[in-house]
Amino acid sequence: MKYDQQLRDTAKAMVAPGKGLLAADESNATAEKRLTAVGLEPTEQVRRSYRQLLLTTPGVERYLSGVILYDETIRQKDDAGTPFADALKAEGIIPGIKVDAGAKDLALHEGEKVTEGLDGLRERFAEYAGMGAGFAKWRAVITISGDSLPSEACLIANAHAMARYAALAQEAGIVPIVEPEVLLDGDHSIERCYEVTEATLKMLFWQLEHQNVMLEGTILKASMVLSGKDAADRADVQTVAEQTVKCLKENVPSELAGVVFLSGGQSEVEATAHLDAMNKLGGTPWPLTFSYSRAIQNPVLQLWSEKKTDEAVAAYLKRCEANSLASQGQWSESFEK
Ligand code: 13P
């Protein structure tokens, strides 16, 4: 493969010890939801100004190996006129780019989604590579509902699209993050989440293999194995850590460069505690680290919306440090006090 070494090097750097990713790739629609929820106007200027805090806070480079950007953001500049991607690179942080076009209703499969965005993707990758993107992200959404969802059709369609995306990314020298998110929504048990996550991962790695995707130059962005948000008896931190690590070990090839987690609606401390417990267990062939959006950004955005900029910066650095510690199994609850 043309970019073999570059892909391996970038993927390795993304999961370097003590580092993880910030997901700041909210689409304009998602950004609008988050901004209006805290009483802000969802204008381009407000999005830029808020993202400037996330992307240029001094000190985050100690904890972040990369940041996932959205198309609008990779084209934006900081107050000094430096493109955000260049500002990140100057701090040794790798800019990444979300390239999927969102999850759309899967035809003839009520309640299920398939992620779109393959059309014209080769040309878009060429442009993003030119703007400095080192890695990319594609998110698929898997819904659990009773015993019937997800359907096999949903798993096949999403995994196939993700593998086609990953191949195009590697052809362009860009490390693909493949993110099959099993949603937290519902009242399902942790056992049901395990079963669905296992089926999702098996299908994904089967499709990646068939599309010749090099796993040493690929990152998995995984959801944790958890009880549904509305489940009666939700599994505790230790059980979540054990089940997640077991599911990954049994279904993810050891050549993969690394696993990063999404937070998926967990609270900030929950997301950190789960990551820490997994790393305390250890014994995985790949590093396990974070790629959180809400579990890092929620307190930051709230404070920023109240014009408490210093507190917002402090909260941001604190969540990044907490997750950095958790990625090494060195966090404890006392850190939060
Ligand atoms: P959350 O951590 O808020 O789940 O977001 C991560 C992400 O990138 C979802 O695609």
Describe the structure.
The chain is an alpha/beta fold and 337 residues long. It has helices at residues 4-14, 28-37, 44-56, 71-74, 84-90, 121-130, 152-171, 190-210, 237-251, 268-281, 294-305, 309-326, and strands at residues 20-23, 64-69, 94-98, 103-105, 113-115, 135-142, 175-182, 219-222, 258-261, 288-292. The protein has an 8-stranded parallel β-barrel with strand order 1-2-3-6-7-8-9-10, surrounded by 7 helices. A two-stranded antiparallel sheet has the order 4-5. Strand 6, helix 7 (152-171) and strand 7 form a beta-alpha-beta unit. The chain is globular and about 50 Å long. The structure holds 1,3-dihydroxyacetonephosphate. 1,3-dihydroxyacetonephosphate (13P) binds next to helix 11.
Overall spatial form: globular
Describe the biggest sheet?
8 strands, parallel, barrel
Q: Name the quaternary structure.
A: single chain
Distance between the termini: 49 Å
Strand numbers in spatial order across the main sheet: 1-2-3-6-7-8-9-10
Q: Which bin fits the share of residues in helices?
A: 40-55%
- Strand fraction equals 5-15%
Question: Given the helix and strand composition, which structural class is it?
Answer: alpha/beta
- Small molecules bound: 1,3-dihydroxyacetonephosphate
